[in-house]
What we know:
Blueprint: E1 9-12, H1 18-29, E2 33-38, H2 41-55, E3 59-63, H3 69-78, E4 84-87, H4 102-130, E5 133-138, H5 151-171, E6 176-183, H6 189-202, H7 206-215, H8 225-235, E7 247-250
Parallel strand pairs: 1-2, 1-4, 2-3, 4-5, 5-6, 6-7
Helix pairs in contact: 1-2, 1-8, 4-5, 6-7
Amino acid sequence: MDLGIEGRTALVCASSKGLGRACALSLAREGVRVVMSARGADALEEAAAAIRAETGATVTTVAADVTTAEGRARLLAACPQPDILVNNAGGPKPGDFREWSRDDWIKALDANMIAPIELIKATIDGMIQRRFGRIVNITSAAVKMPIDHLGLSNGARAGLTGFVAGLARQVAEHNVTINNLLPGPFETDRLRGTAIATAQKTGKSVEDILEARRMTVPARRLGDPAEFGDACAFLCGNRAGFMTGQNLVLDGGTYPGTL
Length: 259
Ligand code: NAP
């Protein structure tokens, strides 16, 4: 399927690894000019070079922290008028809410609620004027099915979800869509890092922990980031113009509800 977005420009945040990188690759395969970002310059350059080599697309990079105003200003200086915005950042730390300070909450809100809202604020009016805009926020399956030790994530991402639900309806008439993609367990560095931490705590092997994780998923496997990237590219395409304000779970069937 031709998504009809060749020549469009995308700003893909937090994209040197994992789900963000997969979104950048899938968009580049569609001929989209991609601006990638992450804090660490080395992994970012390596990812951008690999995507250029595979797709021939124009890929530029900005090493910046998306959770800070200064970082976002640098992203927007490099890509002031994106047609496509993919919001992403690292997830907050796990733990017991009794141990979290106000600063912990502000950090989580900065990363997983305020950064995407600020980038939407800076780019959406241009999308409205050009009568094309696609915004995808990478959130988490925890928005629909809270994970008890990830309260910072459950809370901050729910805030973004509520905000977006209202905004999506205000801009739909201008062919600007806003959707959230909710990953369940995908095989990324983050997921592997969590498995390594659990292995150190429990004495089990990393492979046993990953296998147990796979068995919790009805599909009996972890998600491939490429599947996530392609779902993102579809939402950013012309054909997805009638789809907005949605929260789409990609979790191999883990969420047990009918709707
Ligand atoms: P990942 O493999 O660890 O990759 C994270 C990417 O984000 C890296 O490129 C990282 O590069 C960048 N990044 C992190 N913090 C950043 C910041 N402040 N500013 C700019 N870039 C930043 O993680 P992932 O698994 O793809 O997860 C992406 C998001 O989905 C996270 O919010 C995660 O909580 C959420 N999620 C993931 C899963 C899963 O199974 N993988 C499930 C549910 C939710 P630098 O570190 O160099 O900045």
